[in-house]
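To assess whether the prediction recovers the assembly geometry, we first specified each molecular entity separately, as shown.
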Amino acid sequence: MNRSQLFNHIIEKQSYLCVGLDTDILKIPPHLHKERDPIFEFNKQIIDATYKYCVAYKPNTAFYETLGARGWESLQKTLDYIPKDIFTIADAKRADIGNTSAMYARAFFNKEESGLDFDAVTVAPYMGEDSVKPFLEFEDKWAIVLGLTSNIGSQNFQTLKLANGNFLYQEVLKTVATWGSADQLMFVIGATKASEFADIRKIIPHHFLLVPGVGAQGGDLQSVSQHGFNSQCGLLVNSSRNIIYASSGLDFATQAGNAAKAIAEEMKEYLDKFL
Amino acid sequence: MNRSQLFNHIIEKQSYLCVGLDTDILKIPPHLHKERDPIFEFNKQIIDATYKYCVAYKPNTAFYETLGARGWESLQKTLDYIPKDIFTIADAKRADIGNTSAMYARAFFNKEESGLDFDAVTVAPYMGEDSVKPFLEFEDKWAIVLGLTSNIGSQNFQTLKLANGNFLYQEVLKTVATWGSADQLMFVIGATKASEFADIRKIIPHHFLLVPGVGAQGGDLQSVSQHGFNSQCGLLVNSSRNIIYASSGLDFATQAGNAAKAIAEEMKEYLDKFL
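The predicted structure of the complete assembly is given in tokenized form:
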């Protein structure tokens, strides 16, 4: 999916919500355990209940890898089930030396080989240019590079001050943005740093930002939207646990739909107000 | 496997060689394609031919993920086939926020859930403390954190000068070393920086270092050994392509064995000389 298609979906649905499919076998409702593939069955019902309110799904690969090969199968079935007008993100935080990153890119983008054809993969920047560029060689596919993350550990290295006066994450944004265009690259920017969005937009005005952590990780959707929007919205705001675990009972899908709807309604308001 | 067991294996075998099982379906000998699981068959023969000369195997997960669920099965069969006195490393370069890193740790360490029980996983440091610590909560299991990598992209961020005068990778080594002991943590240190080993040993004198890139990525085994050894050897030196693709013919396993043997003989010399 390319940038203008993504923007069109945002306008049509009046939502920039990304639903994180962080599906934990230990947290799904007990009645699903009798299914042949409980993880897929959970995801299927969550997707049915939420897809009207979101423009993206983001399964985090850790939750599937914990189940080994059968987890990988659940991931593939989930991806196949997601309607084609929805942007799909493998939240995998991969990166390795050039030829190995190219294997990861094939793993997530090349359906013929791996069974998966996500629109985007999240990528860790520490190993530099040759570790990121292989993800940029697929048409209408995206690398979403970690900039400033929302967890407490972001303070260990990402906010270190460099000799040139920048914070490390600012240098990462500035440098990575030279490796590809805003049609191939997005950045992960933690929602707990809404005050920094204005500064970040000076460095990367045109890129989409994937904002995790509205909800369980804290954050402020209004402030993020006010300071983070660009002319093409430029934000995908993720919520995982607050939606998919809104209820642990038989009504889990209905409650997930309600939680997604509530966020989407707030987003409509901010699109009207700030875009 | 704990540190003294690993050191004992190094002394017994007179080798600190790690063989990288970066098995690419496009590069294995054509006659293996008729096998039901060509990747596993290749690995099995490579292991049979090389295990006398090495103390560790390191499959890079990218090469298995490219094949989706069946690649994950080949990885599991490969791990099950490796003799128990060999240290096993999932070269996965994972890390995420705390609860998600915990899922990755279970994916690679908890056989009951995932089918995999590696001794160690490589971990990317960018997301900080809560992304690394979940890997340290398993007895006799290891996190091998990226310090200074051997690829050209290591120059983008790892060698940035900080306001405090350190390079970023030095700060990473120093900080990460406070999160666990030398019985749980190792670091990836690129072999092309042999001149920097003495400085690195000042920061982390006791840790094992995983040194990639002797062979295809360049490097100098003598210099690395001379400057990198500590009293318990403290080095695992990896070679992948130079061993596993030593020949692309029917004799690929024999030639892999010969290539591993040649490196091990050199290592024996350096253990005699420098340890």
